[in-house]
Amino acid sequence: SPPGLLLLTSFLLHMEEGHASPTRLVCDNRLIQKYIGEAKDMEKGVGQCQELPTLSCPMVLPMVGVNLQQWKSKSNETKRREILCDLALLVGAAAGAQHQVTQECGARQLSQLYQHANSFLLLLQTFSWEAGPWEPGCSPCSVEQTHITNIFLTYRQLVQGKLRFFFHDLAKDLCK
User: Fold this and answer.
1) Buried b (16+ CB within 10 A) or exposed e, 6-20
2) Running DSSP on this structure, what letter comes out for residue 107?
3) CA geometry: angle 44, 7, 26, nearest 5 deg
4) Is 2 among the domain residues?
5) Structure confidence by residue, pLDDT tens digits, 3-18
6) What is the mean pLDDT of residues 104-129?
7) Is residue 90 part of a domain?
8) Is-contact 151 62, C-beta < 8 A?
């Protein structure tokens, strides 16, 4: 089964009517640890691919570093929207890189990363705290990269950083 399917399925099984409830994903710390482990494995896996090409068309990647003081001052909805922007850029970068990589190992790893990042993107779009749907017109800080490994590094940093912190913040309210 596609790796992103587990994430989406586990989330959809724990939805409340009308609004998605991230309760299990957020309250069961083992799940986010599993996704961090998978991100690390994907990063390691692409590092083992032989002769990965430099991308002829650079990919735009989000800057996913976190200033904890600034992060703590944001609302959960602002955090969610920021992560959605980062994921949208990552999904686009993975898709764009897939079109440029013909080598089987690199293409397989990019496909896996695309599935995982896209599942998180779809997942976070399913719940919100403020009125109005998410619109993909955001402009996070970004950087152009020509090395495929940077896409995986960015994804791992996003999952290990903002996403983990976001789930931790949600857990304070949902896991009482």
Assistant:
1) bbbeebeebeeeeeb
2) H
3) 100
4) no
5) 555 555 555 544 444 3
6) 86
7) yes
8) no
Please identify which residue in the block is written with the tokens 């976190």.
Answer: 66
Whole-angstrom Cα distance, residue 77 to residue 5? 24
The residue behind tokens 């586990």 is: 10
**CA separation (Å) from 136 to 81, 84, 92?**
9, 8, 12
98: three-class secondary structure by DSSP: helix
Look up the domain containing 120 and give its range: 22-171
**125 vs 138: CA distance, rounded Å:** 14
CATH value at residue 60: 1.20.1250.10
Q: What percent of the chain has pLDDT over 70?
A: 78
* Per-chain mean pLDDT for the chain: 82
Instruction: Give the residue from 168, 138, 152 showing the smallest Cα distance to 27.
Output: 168
This prediction has a pTM of 0.82
Q: How many domains does the chain have?
A: 1
